[in-house]
Write a structure and sequence with these properties.
The structure holds two protein chains of two kinds. Chain A has eight helices and 13 strands. Chain A has a five-stranded mixed sheet, sandwiched between helices. A five-stranded mixed sheet of chain A has the order 11-10-9-12-13, with helices on one face. Chain A is α/β, with parallel strands linked by helices. Chain B is of the alpha+beta class. Helix content of chain B is about 35%, strand content about 20%. Chain B is built from five helices and ten strands; from the N terminus they run ααααββαββββββββ. In chain B, the strands form three sheets. In chain B, strands 3-4-2-1-10 form a five-stranded antiparallel sheet. Chain B has a three-stranded antiparallel sheet with strand order 7-8-9, with helices on one face. Chain B is elongated. Classes of the chains: A alpha/beta, B alpha+beta. At the A-B interface, strand 6, strand 7 and strand 8 of A face loops of B.
Chain lengths: ~325, ~300
């Protein structure tokens, strides 16, 4: 390690700041390689569920943003900012604190068993980062890490998400451009997990297909058991479906055999919905029930017309965040 | 499944209240800045005052240096240098003109024959050539006469005058003859004419004059001081730390290096200048190492 790396390590040590806990800001944004979405929460409905008052989606040209874990991710920042400002103009600019959903490909997620974690936050984060180091295409010291634990009969299980600080800084810069501060940053698929039903010990496979990428996640009660993201860029819909189906089959087999998890119906979320036949074809390929994961209509109760359509096509993640609060 | 992940930075208390704390922090900083400015101004004023005072003192010092240089130049002028050398010469004379009472006692004792003793010695007048008062007791008339003869022959005394003589019978049978006499003491002072003298030539050069021939002290004041003779310089100043004195220096013409000095007051330390009327303790009649030849009438 040369002096520059040592200096950088010392600087990171001195300026180490932990990540925040989950919170639900009043404005939510999602940036993906092919679209930008923004929504503003408008309080709660009669059932106590948060609901959105405004929602807008703006398309993004190809090549403006790439889901790279090492960065850079903003190849055409002006275009992204322009799309974001367009969304902001539609949903209003009254909320200074915002949440941002980023592409899954920019974030690495892992699940690790531990006997015990150190009581110190910094030491625990360092240990989790050390376990995550093989998944990272950059030094662990450059990663910003967030993790949650699940207590087990013997030991504990940690679900950790890590992204390179420079990549996250690029995303935070987008919100700075619209005078917002990022109080919540999550990979988009993570926002869908609260929409999965909790049925005893039964696990659920979530297949999230969007923006030429697919993420497969298995959740069992309060535990995240499996996570994998595949880049499907350059594939047509048919090939993409075949890849998704093959990968889903592998995940089902691996989960049930290695993790000893009984999986319930597979939950499929395709944004925007490609065809209505994806669920049927995937069910046929997997030999098990596949259900579409769509946002609850009551969450978008105040939305109407194009906003409601956009909410139905893209807003599952936002609905998941609202359900997680 | 509930998600509790968040990759956003934890904006801790410091960051969340950054704006709230910035205003009072700014005000405090402003107050401190103003205090610093006021303090700096006060310090600057004090510095200027001290600097002006220091400059003034430096100016005074420079002025004194200039005056010192002027005085030094003035002192280096030929006339002043000659005066300086004369003052130094007079100081030298004063230093050398010492009257030692112990030496006087030794000389008187040397004149006493074995059968006589000195019963009293006093110096009622110490100015000029001091008059010494003797009281002698002898076993007979002959030792007393011997003393008087020695006294008259001594170069250190002159003008011997017998003031009283008596005969006294004592039960012990000793010292039947006593005599008192006065004599002028002219000895005990070095002949200063032998001391080297620095003189200044009219051109301002210092020369070391040759010493004058030895002149008997008792005749100094009377010898060679004619009316057309040398000029005299009288200095009335505390020339030495031993006391005030008035010394008269008679300087011979430039071609004559002899110098004649007469002191008008007793000079030197108090122990060598006894007060008028002082009486020395009686000394035993011890035989001197080289007794003078007794005079026979």
């Amino acid at each position: 390690m040369d002096w520059k790396e040592q200096l950088g390590s010392l600087w990171n040590h001195l300026t180490w700041t932990g990540t925040a806990s989950f919170m639900l800001p009043g404005a939510l944004f999602e940036v993906q390689p092919d679209f930008v979405m923004g929504a503003r929460l408008a309080g709660k409905n009669g059932d106590g569920h948060a609901q959105f008052g405004k929602l807008a989606v703006a398309p993004l040209g190809p090549g403006a943003l790439v889901a790279s874990p090492a960065g850079p991710v903003l190849l055409d920042e002006e275009a992204v900012v322009r799309a974001l400002q367009e969304v902001v103009a539609a949903v209003g600019n009254g909320q200074p604190r915002a949440g941002l959903l980023v592409p899954d490909g920019a974030v690495r997620v892992g699940v690790f068993p531990f006997d015990e974690l150190p009581s110190s936050r910094r030491e625990a984060a360092t240990l989790v980062g050390w376990r995550l180091r093989e998944n990272l295409p950059y030094p662990p010291a450059e990663a910003r890490l967030s993790y949650q634990t699940a207590r087990l009969p013997a030991g504990m299980e940690v679900a950790a998400a890590a992204a390179r600080s420079s990549v996250l800084a690029e995303f935070e810069g987008l919100l700075d451009a619209i005078n917002r501060s990022a109080d919540l940053i999550l990979p988009a698929t993570m926002a869908l997990l609260p929409l999965l039903p909790e049925q005893g010990e039964t696990g659920h496979l979530l297949v999230h297909v969007y923006s030429a990428a697919a993420t497969f996640a298995v959740a069992q009660k309060e535990r995240l058991r499996f996570w994998r993201t595949r880049d499907l860029a350059g594939l047509d819909l048919e090939d993409m479906f075949e890849q998704v189906a093959a990968e889903a089959a592998r995940v089902v087999a691996s989960t049930e055999d290695r993790l000893d998890v009984h999986l319930g119906p597979v939950r499929l979320c395709v944004r925007p919905p490609a065809t209505d036949l994806w669920a049927e074809k995937l069910a046929a390929a997997l030999g098990r029930e596949v259900a579409l994961l769509e946002p609850a209509p009551e969450v978008g109760g105040l939305l109407a017309g194009p906003e409601r359509t956009a909410f139905r096509n893209y807003g599952a993640t936002l609905a998941g965040l609202a359900a997680n609060h | 499944m509930r998600v509790n992940l968040n990759l956003a930075r934890d904006q801790g208390f410091r960051q969340r209240h950054l704006v709230a704390w910035s205003v009072p922090t700014l005000l405090v900083a402003l107050v401190l800045l103003l205090r610093m400015i006021v303090g700096a101004q006060a310090n600057w004023g004090e510095y200027r005052t001290v600097r002006a005072s220091a400059d003034k003192e430096v100016g005074r010092q420079n002025e004194l240096l200039v005056r010192e240089a002027q005085l030094a130049r003035k002192l280096d002028e030929p006339d002043n240098r000659a005066l300086l050398h004369e003052v130094q010469f007079i100081n030298y004379l004063i230093d050398e003109r010492r009257l030692s009472f112990g030496e006087l006692t030794d000389k008187v004792t040397a004149l006493l024959p074995p059968q006589a003793r000195l019963s009293g010695l006093s110096m009622p007048d110490a100015s000029g050539d001091p008059v010494v008062h003797f009281a002698i007791e002898g076993s007979g008339e002959e030792p007393v006469e011997t003393f008087l003869t020695n006294l008259e022959n001594s170069p250190d005394f002159k003008d011997v005058i017998i003031t009283n003589q008596g005969f006294e019978e004592k039960e012990s049978g000793g010292a039947p003859v006593s005599i008192t006499c006065n004599a002028r003491y002219v000895g005990g002072r070095e002949d200063l004419s032998l001391a080297p003298v620095k003189t200044a030539t009219p051109a301002g050069e210092e020369v070391l004059a040759a010493p004058a021939p030895k002149i008997k002290a008792g005749t100094k004041a009377a010898a060679g001081l004619g009316a057309a003779g040398p000029r005299a310089i009288t200095t009335q100043a505390p020339l030495r730390a031993g006391g005030a004195a008035t010394a008269t220096r008679v300087v011979a013409p430039a071609t004559e290096p002899a110098v004649k000095v007469q002191a008008s007051k007793p000079l030197g330390s108090p122990q060598v200048a006894p007060a008028p009327g002082a009486t020395a303790p009686a000394t035993p009649a011890t035989p001197p190492e080289a007794p003078p030849q007794p005079r026979t009438n």
